Amino acid sequence: MSFGRLERSPGPQPMSDINMTPLVDVMLVLVVIFIITAPLLVGAVKVDLPKSEVTASADNSPFVALSINKAGQVFVGDQPLQGAPLMRALEQAAAQNPETEVQLRADTEVPYGRVVEVMGVAHKAGLYRIGFVAEVATTPAN
């Protein structure tokens, strides 16, 4: 038996670089989540629509979506507009196509006077076709 020196090979050195694979995986998951949820967040103005037993029409003519929330603030699409900017937006829509329909969505708590004011602005801008948007009422089964 010899008493010699045992050679030990040096072990693996600690890794000093950041492993990017888990970071990239997490970022891709976040991108997918944002892609899925972004359209849901942009949705529209929160309006509590009145109920009606009439079904929706299947007309595919051009339209401008006007919404009036509980506070009486007017939105064109999802952009809040008041006064002159509202009038310009409606005049521009009328200039593109005089047959453009205004689809008016008013919260149930908006005073009738405010709805009539907005209708007057649309009429003054040259938009004469106004449709009121309502939710379809569900009737209880007998």
Describe the structure.
This protein has helices spanning 20-42, 83-96, 112-125; strands spanning 51-52, 63-68, 74-76, 79-80, 101-106, 129-132, 135-136. It has 142 residues and is an alpha/beta fold. It has a domain at 51-136: 2-Layer Sandwich (Nucleotidyltransferase, domain 5), CATH 3.30.420.270. The protein has a five-stranded mixed sheet, with helices on one face. It has a two-stranded parallel ribbon with strand order 1-7. α2 (83-96) crosses α3 (112-125). The chain is elongated.
Secondary structure topology:
Blueprint: H1 20-42, E1 51-52, E2 63-68, E3 74-76, E4 79-80, H2 83-96, E5 101-106, H3 112-125, E6 129-132, E7 135-136
Parallel strand pairs: 1-7, 2-5, 5-6
Antiparallel strand pairs: 2-3, 3-4
Helix pairs in contact: 2-3
Keywords, separated by commas or semicolons:
alpha/beta; 142 residues; Nucleotidyltransferase, domain 5; elongated; two-stranded parallel sheet
